[in-house]
Amino acid sequence: MNNQLEIIKKASDLIEKKKYKDAKYILLDFKEKNLNIKIDIRFYYTLYLVSDGLRETQNAKKYLEKCIKINDNNYIVLNNLANIYLKEGNIDRAEKFYLKSYNLKEDYLLVIVNLAIFYQNLGKLEEAKKFYLKAIELSPKRISLYFNLSRIDKNFINEKKIKYLKKLIQSEKKELSEISYGYFLLANYERTRKNFDQELAYLEKANKYSFESAIVTNKKTLNYWKNVIVRKYKNFHFINEGKENHLKNFKPIFIIGLPRSGSTITEVLLRSNNNNIVSLGEASIFNGIIAKGFSNDDKKEIDLEFVRNSILTILRNKNFDFKNPIFIDKSLENFFYVEVILKIFPNAIFINTVRNIEDNIFAIYKQSLSKISWTHSIKDILEYTDNYLKIMSYFFKNYSNFFLSFDLEKLTKNPEEQTKRLYEFCNLKWSQEVLNFYNKKDILISTASNIQIRNGIKQYEIDKYKPYKKLLKDFLAKYHWLNN
Questions:
Q1: CATH topology of domain 219-483
Q2: What is the pTM of this model?
């Protein structure tokens, strides 16, 4: 046993340094050389951490299940196993394991927050509220909990809580991401009081702290979006194009565009009438494979065989049903990778979700999109949007048969006509059930539009963003499309 503990410690040190492959090697080597000893739960849990670090989801699940066989009352293992079931789309098992973890330890903050988010994404808002309140009771200075709960309960944030949040922001040494959530809350509160100048002042601070909370990563990815991929989208160099393509018969539907453009409701509309259509959500498969290997070298080659094999591995890790040729991918940035996608999936189609472009810009800026580096300033949003419009113009011109433009405002004016148009383009059978999507109990929505979509299709608010138009005055000469 001492040798086993020593190996676990060595592996844990390697995991801390993110040397997952080295950790995996010494763990599996020890296990292979000691077939007759009883393996400790900590050994399997360390193997889970390694697999999770390597994004080997099925292995991660396997090792957690081995932990459960040794001790099915380990609340940490149960919570992590629930996370994996949730990624696989197994909602029932995810809920079961989250609740079992919670019942074993009712003050385990991590599972309480996970349950709150789980029920929020499932549309069970009263259940979500209950767990958020429990989390706030345990961690009253965690501002992100107030932010999430305020999205469910519009009356949760009052003047008293605003005063408390201001004190937290100013007097506590907090993570930058938490400060960012605080300023977003203050901005939302000022908006409800129609103090738009103060709202904008708080939004500027909120986005500043959000960007700085992951400044190294954000600077790197911002450079990628602004200076690298924009020069490559129609100049990719491919190798191994003629090798056998095991994915050629798939018929994926790629939803692309800008955030806050109606992409989530489009995804839900497509899934609401057909339980067999799986959505990978915002998996960013192509961006994850391609961006990692790119430098500023325009002649960097894309090995299509490597891309195909990588996609197959990712789909297997997601427990994907390869018998169903149709699936949805809602990674909005995929408009950069259209030519790569069509090399892999020649039967792919693309739905470009759109809305009034100025409204779209303001909606992005006002939303906390902490994981998207270009969303934290009007200047960066406009530059990204300009590139998006140019790229979409190119692809609509050269690959028109593969694209449908789906307008959010038109959808709200005539839902039946527009959804029929959507279904016809995707070669899917439409029924009246499509328009009853908000009654579905088994659709998990994890984007910022979750709460809004649960209320059905509402009339488009034309003047909603009128108070923010002054944010664009310094850019009107640079971007002609703002004058339209």
A1: Rossmann fold (3.40.50)
A2: 0.91
